[in-house]
Amino acid sequence: MPAVSELLRVATAGSVDDGKSTLIGRLLHDTKSILEDQLAHVAETSERRGDGYVNLALLTDGLRAEREQGITIDVAYRYFQTGAAAGAATGVATGAAAGVAAGAATAAVELDASAASFRGGRKFIIADTPGHEQYTRNMVTGASTADVSIVLIDARHGVSEQTRRHAYITSLLRIPHLVVAINKMDLVDYSQDAFESIVAEFTDWATRLALSDVSFIPLSALRGDNVVERSDSMPWYQGPSLLYHLEHVVIATDRDMDDVRFPVQWVVRPMSDEHHDYRGYAGQVAAGVIRPGSEVLVLPSGRRTRVAAIDTYDGELELAFPTMSVTLRLEDDIDISRGDLIAGADEPPTVARDLEAMVCWMSEQPMRPGGRYAIHHTTRAAKAIVDRLEYRVDVNTLERDPDAGTLELNEIGRVHLRSSTPLVVDPYARNRTTGSFILIDEATNDTVGAGMIRSAR
Amino acid sequence: MTPGPQAHVTTRSTYELSHLQALEAEAIYIMREVAAQFERPVLLFSGGKDSIVLMRLAEKAFRPSRFPFPVMHVDTGHNFPEVIAFRDQLVERLGERLIVASVQDSIDSGRVREETGPRASRNRLQTTTLLDAIAQHGFDAAFGGARRDEERARAKERVFSFRDDFGQWDPKNQRPELWALYNGRIRRGEHVRVFPISNWTEMDVWQYLAQERLDVPSIYYAHTREVFARDGMLYATSPHIELLDGEAPFAASVRYRTVGDMTCTGAVRSTATTLAEVVAEIAATRITERGETRADDRVSDAAMEDRKREGYF
Description:
The complex is a heterodimer of chains A (457) and B (313). Chain A has 3 domains: 6-248, Rossmann fold (3-Layer(aba) Sandwich), CATH 3.40.50; 261-344, Translation factors (Elongation Factor Tu (Ef-tu), domain 3), CATH 2.40.30.10; 350-456, Translation factors (Elongation Factor Tu (Ef-tu), domain 3, Beta Barrel), CATH 2.40.30.10. Chain A has helices at 20-30, 36-49, 64-69, 92-109, 135-143, 161-172, 192-206, 242-248; strands at 6-13, 76-81, 122-129, 148-154, 177-183, 214-218, 261-263, 266-268, 280-284, 295-299, 303-311, 325-330, 341-344, 350-361, 372-377, 380-393, 400-401, 412-425, 436-440, 447-456. In chain A, the strands form 3 sheets. Chain A has a 7-stranded antiparallel β-sheet with strand order 7-13-10-11-12-9-8, with no helix packed on it. Chain A is an alpha+beta fold and 457 residues long. The longest helix of chain A has 18 residues, at 92-109. By secondary structure, chain B is of the alpha/beta class. In chain B, α2 (49-62) links the parallel β1 and β2. The radius of gyration of chain B is 19 Å and the shape is globular. Chains A and B meet through α2, α3, β2, α4 and β3 of A and α1, α2, α6 and α7 of B.
């Protein structure tokens, strides 16, 4: 069986104290994703710095300033892969450990990916965000593409301000799956009561959030309990280990497969002798299943046509779905350019200039009500004016402050904007691609705001 | 368009993509964004496996059109001859435009000074040649094949990596990169390095080469070569590298895991003569590719970061 596996994007956030680095280090180590020279380098650097232990944070803290100051500045990306775990809970550990080598060796033998089936092996991208500096900005960035969010809670301390902040951002960014990892269970004698009371406390508070799938896992990252293998120390816990959960959480159904959303990115027009009349619209499918013959609307113009063919370098396809990059040919000759959106005819998105959105501010220059910014939404660039800030959210208490007036760095609020040209949008809750935008300061060209659309007209 | 071996996603019962399909789709999207957002992009091609993948991704992004940008190779003059031959062949087969920026020209015109001694390398000189070529051609975006799994500094670099008008990278002042909304806005004189395969690992690259049945330069396969040992690595003997006292050349069966300048790229002992065997060896290795074969990263903890700040690849 070839090593064909699904890609899972995971966001973790937290501070040094809650054991996040230890947890990630444990996942990487136990799946044999840290190679000898990396481990030797970390050990040597830890020794030289006088850390007194093998400081796994050094694996990702690669920048000079980070190593000098012992802090994490930026989102770090880590990668690991597990092989076919074959489904049995007890087989997870060996499957994961052996998977890197075994899966890869077979890949080269059986090259034809078409015969592949998924057997639980996955490739993981972990966006690891620092807990202190630029906290909100970094976590929003890491969370924007994540399928799963891991929030760590120290079992001794229970739900903290930081836990609430993590959960709120997970909810705001609509990460489909949340894992609440209750860590350091070894320090509370693996007590079921301690675990249950944290679960109850979190659940009670989280009713105010839009979380669709929450899992609680008691673990000890330091001792490896319930990280890769299920632990014998907590017989009262019947659920999976963290890695088993990450390998099996179903993400294929997270995307909207009903209503087609296809932002046009690039018009393919060779104008060569061989392909003189070829005209295709290239882009990445954001939602829905497209087939030749599908009836579509081209927005904002509102013209109706049908898909004539779905082209790729490897030949025509019978269907396309998220997140495939394809080129569509249409039956009618319509004027279409980058920034237009090809949508299913049934539940079309809204063509609008007035947007209401939750905006996370990412610049040291505060958001200016009345200020003008460049806005990038799907493949369309326009200008936008901030009409007003309706309220600012305290990310720790979820309280709303209607008198805030402006948003400072790392603050989140509900904002009314007006764009210079019509945008083709959906609510962010419905589609993360057509519901999101960034704001750019035209003087500095910096990305200063991240927006999630609530409504539009 | 010709149907290839990968046009079979339709056979799946559920709407799932393999990780390689997902990574490929992301990379194609990034390349098209660059073509749309910039006036004068260029694809940096070294002849190595990562840039071979970039060339295939560009075919997937833009065919049946030609690439909306030229391909540029920064030639140190100390490259493996097999790689240069491979480069010329590939570019000709694809019918794309090749620009060669030459470190020798930079030396001859006095822009840089050649290092001397047994450890001399033109690796660092490339930066000047690269930045001069970017300025000369007015390029505003340059695709590179760097991956985040390669090296610690690269793990924190954006997909669209902004460079000021000195070509410098400022790791502490990077633009946040959210969703798939890439901000390609720059001023005249500035440029962006773009890394479409940021999220790929070394294994992903090899699996993709296998899946796409792509050729790689012969030095990636085991061959007998005259080498000598230095600093725990095996280097090819060549006119470009002086031996130190006590360094004795010998013949060994080796292959290369990365392709760079002959003076700073080490070989590994190997008997792998097919792609499948190479992939099996890499799967079994316990050392990273740059750790095993690149002298240029061994200068200090932050050697790559320091070079990148100056404008290196």
